[in-house]
Amino acid sequence: MTRFFGRHHIAIPGPSILPDRVIQAIGRASPDIYDPELAEMVHGIIKDLKTVAGTKEYASIYICNGHGVWEGSLTNLFNKGDKVLVLATGIFAPGWGGFAEALGMDVETLDFGKRNPVDTETLLERLSRDKKHEIKAVLVVQVDTSTSVRNDIHAISKAIKSIDHPALLAVDCIASLGCENFYMDEWNVDVMIAGSQKGLMTPPGLGFIFFNERAREAGKNVNLRTPYWDWERRVNPEEFYQLFCGTAPTHQLFALREALNMILHEEGLEQVFRRHGIIAEAIWAAFDTWSSKGQIEMNIRDKHSRSHSVSTIKLLPPNGTLLRKWTRDHAGLTLGIGLGMGTNDDPKSTGYFRIGHMGHINPNMILGLLGSIEAGFEHLGVARGTGSLEAATKVISQT
Questions:
Q1: What is the 3-class SS of the chain, one letter each residue?
Q2: How far is Cα 134 from Cα 157, in angstroms, rounded to an integer?
Q3: What is the pLDDT of residue 3?
Q4: Tens digit of each residue's pLDDT (9 = 90 or more) over 13-62
Q5: Which of 41, 43, 40, 66 is nearest to 254 (CA)?
Q6: Burial 74-97 (b: 16+ CB within 10 A, else e)
Q7: 282-334 tens-digit pLDDT
Q8: Rounded-to-integer distance, Cα 125 and Cα 122, Å
Q9: Distance of alpha carbon 314 from its chain centroid, rounded?
């Protein structure tokens, strides 16, 4: 068999699979960017984005990827020299912190390793020592795409509030928005950033910053704000073009409108969360069965800390790389690379691979994916437990 027949399954943790309807929404003639209908559509998109984020406050759209909204959020909130605390559970929160450092901020990192979520007791201990309240914000990801850890954002927020520390809570939901439960207002999150290319099932190119009045007030008169990233210009624009600091990304917006229709107005957001949970549980059941014997191990041991959108798997090196090559060439399945998981014994992360299970995904696709991985394990002679597909099927059939 070769990879050239049938529909290829891209199971990387973003960009995720595009629904046919989203692709079709892009394939239309360019609109008149001054037509009131376009402005009306965009205002509806912003309203729906806030519903997905669980907020009634502010949302702004930028033409960028996730790294763009890392920078955009920082420039709206801080002055040079301000101190931020980064909670690291992989490579992405430190990446955000690296942008803060490059912008001239004082960055401190609490590193919880590559296999564990944030420990709130450790966070409380550090914030309790900050008697002068020098820490202006806490930066954390809900799901780290490299390790697949899921942090309990509500618990982190409650920990900060429990000692009345005034630090803002800023959360990266790039790998989780539209996949994991997230309730920005209810959980007292001040800033949240996300992108279009994962749970929102839209091509890369749109970044989102959600923020509340507390964050807006904290960011007044900061010295890092620049014209393009300035969220104040986008909150109450006098002209439609000011929402995007220029020409609107029209075809990206058509795609996003269709994706939001599917998420909110057809399937329903809570059902979307439930579907992602069921699919994740099926994948975990398969890998926990495989890992009962031999070389296979889920990177995150505790189920409560496993992501519903991406799973990182550990094998003996170089079997992660070899499996990805085999499934790509012989099963029509592309798995994600081991990202940022290098060790002294495996510096290129060849013993790891990742499965993206976010967005436009269903049980049929997941069972095919697991069957292809089983075939790859068999080809490579990877030692493993038996009954994994039955375990996954049981999860799906019972829910």
A1: CCCCCCCCEEECCCCCCCCHHHHHHHCCCCCCCCCHHHHHHHHHHHHHHHHHHCCCCEEEEEECCHHHHHHHHHHHHCCCCCEEEEEECCCHHHHHHHHHHHCCCEEEEEECCCCCCCCHHHHHHHHHCCCCCCEEEEEEECECCCCCEECCHHHHHHHHHHCCCCCEEEEECCCCCCCCCCCCCCCCCCEEEEECCCCCCCCCCEEEEEECHHHHHHCCCCCCCCCCCCCHHHHCCCCHHHHCCCCCCHHHHHHHHHHHHHHHHHHCHHHHHHHHHHHHHHHHHHHHHHCCCCCCEECCCCHHHECCCEEEEECCCCHHHHHHHHHHHHCCEEEEECCCCCCCCCCCCCCEEEEECCCCCCHHHHHHHHHHHHHHHHHHCCCCCCCHHHHHHHHHHHC
A2: 18
A3: 56
A4: 999 999 999 999 999 999 999 999 999 999 999 999 999 999 999 999 99
A5: 41
A6: bbbbbeeebbbbbbbbbbbbbbbb
A7: 999 999 999 999 899 999 999 999 999 999 999 999 999 999 999 999 999 99
A8: 5
A9: 21
